[in-house]
Amino acid sequence: MTQDNQRGFGLNRRDALVGLAAVTGVVATGAGGLAVASDWLGPPRLTAARFTDRFEQLYGRHDGFRRNHAKGVAATGTFTSTGAATEVSRASVFRSGTVPVIARFSLSGTLPDQNDQPATVRGLGVLFQTSDGQQWRTAMVNIPVFPDSTPRGFYDRMLASKPDPKTGKPDPAAMSAFLAAHPETAAAMKVIKAAPPSAGFADSTFWGLNAFLATAENGHTTPIRWSLIPAQQATTSAQGDDFLFDALIEQVQRGPVSWRLVLTLGQPGDPTRDATLGWPADRRTVEAGVLTIDRLATEAPGNARDINFDPLVLPDGLAASDDPLPRARSAVYAQSFNRRAREPKSPSEVDVEEVIHDEH
């Protein structure tokens, strides 16, 4: 891979390039993607297909891989609920007990063989499978706010971020003009830059970014956001092109890695339709449970490779808010999935040679 090809294709805090909305690939089954895959995402004539086309036109097409967050590794584990979140949501995943999860760790960007860089945005997609047959799918990243408030803003930032073939970097004038027209993005980028990345995947905090609505058994609805808080430090001596993934593999070899799932409860007046804006730090939180990953695997048929982490696949008790981004993500994810499902598959860059950890 040339140096030019290594640069400009992954979202990082310094450049805030494209890639957050399509955090992981997606499924053509499930509630969200198919329902909105043909919808307009915004004027003029911005569709999910056109959005996905732009990823391919600007950043290349790589058959069989997600159009964004192409580099990744599959994982499985469990979620053990504390039962505390039943106060705000009747979703069965929050009842006391343990359910299986399928997950995927990834890096923002369209190159499935890109070199790992500390500043590249890291993703974690999780599918919670409950005993009553419902699913909850969520795609999170390790930055505290999203750079754009609307699908159109994200699309326009993609254009402004188009790499110059000679430098591999965006045109500074184009990005400056975009930021002048989008002060919300300029403000969000300052927040992102103020939150430096951790050493690796294992000690990253992952944010859901968007607001959702939680409804309790008594019918009361509360706006919420969620995050995963790491229970361990990242420790590794890994080096090389895949050092972030190799470090995670080494850590899981030594034992499971865990995150606390924390729900943040919104109050009247807190923004629910603008992911560039965080909520006040004094908002009440609920410890919903612990996500534990005890196994990693090379992406292959039947594991996380083929899962669409559609943000609109939600269990009863959770629902979308008025934020326009999850609906756009759902539609673009479906486009990405449907395209890559029909394409030949190439080997994953991240190769896990054996089951990493199994306590059973």
Automatic annotation (TrEMBL):
<feature type="region of interest" description="Disordered">
    <location>
        <begin position="338"/>
        <end position="360"/>
    </location>
</feature>
<keyword id="KW-0349">Heme</keyword>
<dbReference type="GO" id="GO:0042744">
    <property type="term" value="P:hydrogen peroxide catabolic process"/>
</dbReference>
<keyword id="KW-0408">Iron</keyword>
<comment type="similarity">
    <text>Belongs to the catalase family.</text>
</comment>
<dbReference type="GO" id="GO:0004096">
    <property type="term" value="F:catalase activity"/>
</dbReference>
<feature type="domain" description="Catalase core">
    <location>
        <begin position="29"/>
        <end position="360"/>
    </location>
</feature>
<keyword id="KW-0560">Oxidoreductase</keyword>
<dbReference type="Pfam" id="PF00199">
    <property type="entry name" value="Catalase"/>
</dbReference>
<dbReference type="GO" id="GO:0046872">
    <property type="term" value="F:metal ion binding"/>
</dbReference>
<dbReference type="InterPro" id="IPR011614">
    <property type="entry name" value="Catalase_core"/>
</dbReference>
<feature type="binding site" description="axial binding residue">
    <location>
        <position position="333"/>
    </location>
    <ligand>
        <name>heme</name>
    </ligand>
</feature>
<keyword id="KW-0575">Peroxidase</keyword>
<dbReference type="InterPro" id="IPR006311">
    <property type="entry name" value="TAT_signal"/>
</dbReference>
<feature type="compositionally biased region" description="Basic and acidic residues">
    <location>
        <begin position="340"/>
        <end position="360"/>
    </location>
</feature>
<dbReference type="InterPro" id="IPR018028">
    <property type="entry name" value="Catalase"/>
</dbReference>
<protein>
    <recommendedName>
        <fullName>Catalase-related peroxidase</fullName>
        <ecNumber>1.11.1.-</ecNumber>
    </recommendedName>
</protein>
<dbReference type="GO" id="GO:0042542">
    <property type="term" value="P:response to hydrogen peroxide"/>
</dbReference>
<dbReference type="GO" id="GO:0020037">
    <property type="term" value="F:heme binding"/>
</dbReference>
<dbReference type="GO" id="GO:0005737">
    <property type="term" value="C:cytoplasm"/>
</dbReference>
<comment type="function">
    <text>Has an organic peroxide-dependent peroxidase activity.</text>
</comment>
<dbReference type="InterPro" id="IPR024168">
    <property type="entry name" value="Catalase_SrpA-type_pred"/>
</dbReference>
<dbReference type="InterPro" id="IPR020835">
    <property type="entry name" value="Catalase_sf"/>
</dbReference>
<feature type="active site">
    <location>
        <position position="69"/>
    </location>
</feature>
<keyword id="KW-0479">Metal-binding</keyword>
